[in-house]
Fold each of these.
Amino acid sequence: MNEDKIRSTAGGRWEGPFYCVQGDGFEARFAVGPDELPDDVCNVDAWIHLPDGSGWTATIFTLAEVDRLMHQWNETREAASFWCSDGLIVRAPGISVMVEAIAEIVDAGEVEGAFQRITDTRQAGWVTEN
């Protein structure tokens, strides 16, 4: 893996299995696969932590990944639609594109409509005070 490329992507850092990025008004943790480069990610689970202490999940796909999955599923079952409860679709691969999309949602105040709220942020490695 190219370490310089990993470090340059969206200003992120590795924390255990998560690729973490500090955005303006949020922190996002991405479950990037061990064989994936952050710039190439096209399907990833993310945990978003806001300054108010709330935690949110998103499953982020590129348009091409949705198309690939639907074609794959069509071979084994009906694939007339694609959905997931916290799904977010971006045009291009890469953590930096995904961070930009998250930032737009946070800035617009659309977090509750776009992401799934989690009550136990420890599942993404955060420890919150109660």
Amino acid sequence: MVNDSTGDDLTPTTSKKPAAPKAAASKATTTAKKSTGKDGAKVSKKADKRKPVRLDSPRWLVPTMVAAFIIGLVWIVAYYVAPDAPVISTLGWWNVLVGFGFFTVGFVLSTKWK
């Protein structure tokens, strides 16, 4: 078939794309794949090893939490057992609030414990 206006051959042909050279194909598989890092620079996959995130609590959290619970309990018990003690007698009923304040600190710290 020939196009009358341009003279081009319009006959459909079955042609295959030329195969990639084997040397180029093997080179592509041996090189490390590149990806972009946080700053946009190219980073190889081998260098993209991230450290796992540690989900543990800080070492000070549990002792501080337990200490807050114990101090709050001892403060309230001391107020009820010896209301005429020197420091406790000056605060009066505020001693209960101080004890519950320590309890509150303990409960807030317990929400951070993992």
Amino acid sequence: MEEFDNKDLEKKDKNLVFGQQVKAGKRVYFIDVRATNKGDYYLSITESRKKIAHDGKMVFEKSKVFLYKEDFEKFLNSLNEAVDYIKKEQPFDPAEYAERRKQYIEERNLNNPNYDGNSGANYKEVSFDDLG
């Protein structure tokens, strides 16, 4: 996790008390402690995902969860149980993950022959001699 201390962000968002970022591929999770107008703290968890819009521009889709102090214990207990269940039933295997990722990329490239990994941009190599 990456803690951040951004003065510009604090000026824009007076309610932000503390924050961390978790970068995970095309996703970034923001885990923020915020204050209500009365000064009570709560947790704001935001998932931000990079997407390419229909017009080819990069956009970010965001999903948020707000969690209040009185719910922390119940939430953490349920979260830990769910994570433990997944770890038990489907342990993480880096080799399997790498293979599944490779298959996904191959399928994406087969299904979209124009995909070149550059946000849909097609580049042509030009020589200075071609410019005259």
Amino acid sequence: MSHVKAAGSKAHQGVHIVGKRRGIKKYSGEQVISGNILVRQKGTVIHPGKNTKMGRDFTIFTVIDGFVSFRKMTGHKRGQFYVDVLEQPIETVEKSKSKVSEISDK
């Protein structure tokens, strides 16, 4: 038997496995329809929020038509990420809040 291992022999014996295609499928602000997959993940890295549900393989999908929004929790749930589906885009919600503040200032 040889006392010297052949160069690179172990590196090429591994099996090549295709990726699982996990990750975020719809990003913040994108328009989605009911049933669209938002996140494919292993475990609860991202939690389901408003108008979203989680499948048994931790896939997060939308229940209504709307726009995707991500948020990071504070307080005792700090560090957790949630994905929501809102009926209006985020810009529209912020504009309507500013209009309300303008009216209340008068």
